[in-house]
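Hey, I was hoping to borrow your eyes for a little while. I've been puzzling over a protein and I'd love to understand its fold better. The fold is given in discrete form, as structure tokens running alongside the sequence. I'd be grateful if you could look everything over and explain what you see. No rush at all, and the record is pasted right below.
>
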Amino acid sequence: MNEAELKMSAVREYLLALQARIVGALEAADGNDFLLDSWTREPGGRLEGDGQTRLVEGGALFERGGCNFSHVKGRVLPPSATQHRPELAGAPFEAMGVSLVLHPHNPFVPTVHMNVRMFAAFPADQAPVVWFGGGMDLTPYYGFETDAQHFHQTCEQALQPFGPELYPRFKTWCDEYFFLKHRHEPRGIGGVFFDDFAELGFDGSFAMMQAVGDAFLPAYLPIVERRQKLAYGEAERDFQAYRRGRYVEFNLVFDRGTLFGLQSGGRTESILMSMPPIVKWRYSWAPEPGTAEARLYSDFLRPRDWAHETPGPAWA
């Protein structure tokens, strides 16, 4: 293997191990095995490569959830991947990553998304251009300050070794990215997001991506453990289904990962795994003032410095 191939191999090895580790922990939390759908794209088409879709539907904890690995190569970078790098338009590429979305049954357990990925473009007569992207964000239906603080503090701790400026920068980026412009509201309470990142060199940028991927389970599972046994009724499920509509709107209209997958000829079932199973829309609806549902809008769906706020009581 040459140097570039060794680097690609190291990233692939890490991502497959990350997927296995996350799925193992989620299977233990749910009590059900995740389906395994391995796939291969043969050479000669728009894409070649392989991947693993790991999915649970109708689990004890997760109504629908999945954690996917993909590694693909293509002849031409799609528009979504060259949005900020127009000089690479038309270049062959290689991309690999792990992406997950979890939609729990219990409305008091938040939906969560995490993604870590690497892109390499191979422009003619130039050295390969490699960059990393990813992050994680939390989408609660009922807000709890301690959950938001824990999630953000875990993200901050993961990024701290790479520079104190990265967490506030990536936190702001996340707030701005996961924003529904047509609704004028955030999708959730954010987390961290980064893209087109190579400023620490290959080794440093790869290490930072690994730190984000490794932080997912400690960021999310303690929240699941605190909330999964809280009692709920049809009213809470109804509000959850309504708010899930925002998730669908963002993924289908704005999400670069979804657009990249569809534009590059990726596997539709794996790409749309992120869609929640039960969703509702209403015309010009708002929650009653003073309710827990209204508090989601007033207290949580706005930028806050979650990592540095004074923690509330354990149940809050």
Summary: DSSP finds eight helices and nine strands in the chain. The chain has one domain: 3-300. The beta strands are 35-41, 47-57, 62-74, 93-104, 111-121, 129-139, 179-180, 185-186, 190-197.
